[in-house]
Design brief:
By secondary structure, the protein is α+β, with helices and mostly antiparallel strands. The chain contains eleven helices and 20 strands. Helices cover about 20% and strands about 25% of the residues. A hairpin with a 6-residue loop joins strand 6 and strand 7. The longest helix is centred in the C-terminal third of the chain and has 19 residues.
Length: about 450
Amino acid sequence: MMSQEKNDEITLVGADQPAGQLLRHYWMPAALAVELDGPRPVAPVRLMGEDLVLFRREDNTLGLMSRFCPHRGVDLCYGRLEGGGIRCSFHGWHFDQTGQCTEQPAEPDGSRMHERIKISSYPAVEKNGVIWTYMGPGEPPAFPALDCFRAPDTHVFAFKGLWECNWLQALEIGIDPAHASFLHRFLQDEDPADGYGKQFRDKAAQSDMPMTKVLRDFDNPELKVEETDYGLRIIALRDLGNGQRHVRVTNQVFPCAITIPMSNEMTITQWHVPVDDTHCYWYSMFTSFGAPVDKEKMREQRLKEHRLPDYAPLRNKSNEYGYDPEEQKTLTYTGMGLDINVHDQWAVESMGSVQDRTREHLASSDAAIVRYRRMLRAAIKSVKLGEGELPLVIDEATAKDIQGPISIDAIGPTEEWESVWTDRDAGRRASCSWDAALS
């Protein structure tokens, strides 16, 4: 349990809040690149409590600035794209990509009032289907050489989904390996051959055992948590009782991402991005070490569960997440369908919009959550005091050495588990069509 003051410290994301100040030292996903497709490349963005307008300029560079005109507050998302910026449709005030007002055509000739008017703006860059922004002080850090950034566009698919809860509880479910044996338990096993694009549908590596059976039959993993240069490595060991162990390696990438295996050839790197204190988006980058990603199929699968344009899930608290008591008896542990994102969504939203940690009782299975919160508080303290290094706030030279991270399922002899997962990953990378080698 913790005090309300401590809970607020690690959850609230306003620019004047401790966690909000820390998160602003990192690049954050702002939108999917496909949100700017079409005849008018403009999209609204709400990020860490700020309302912004994102747009693609004529030269294909990006602009991101305050959504509301400083004249009388109208919405610049409906402005005109002109001259590398946006012109307000109300009185014609024009703003360039830096947020500087360059013209006020309704003002008297010779007026220089526009020179004193500038709205907030932030840098924006595109990487493998996701548009990123930096909303913090000084120069932004370099992007680490994660697999999802190193892989070619053909081998990465990006998607997102809206959850009605605080970002921290959304992240913490991703660093809790024990929950998968219960929340994502399937009472029947599907044919792994039909599982493309779906998590926990493949066979466990180097075996014929479906992952659904591994999780269902071996629900008490031994957990090991290690600090790394990118955050945390989390290893879940399941003794199969036949002289072999299943090893599942997942990661927390500081400050708000996870990297986990989806199948034998794909990993998921997923950021949990605050919209505001009580809503967040998960942004997933699916990276393939095998064939190019079938992006059309992956997007079609996920659009069956989400609406546009806000990417809100169709199953939600208003319809009880599709809960079916008969299904709960025979097919899934939750009775909420086969999409594990819905299971996670129910779990984190049912905690309340901001989880009340004054009432929680952490257990040994929460080892990674405990370690992560210590890292989070230490980083918040560093920002407050203005001293010490922050995890993953790095320069270009350092960024090149932060690779991977390895995220994999593997099975091997019980006594050789420490080499089984690294050997399995090395083989996968060696046969990869893009340069996935770890230096």
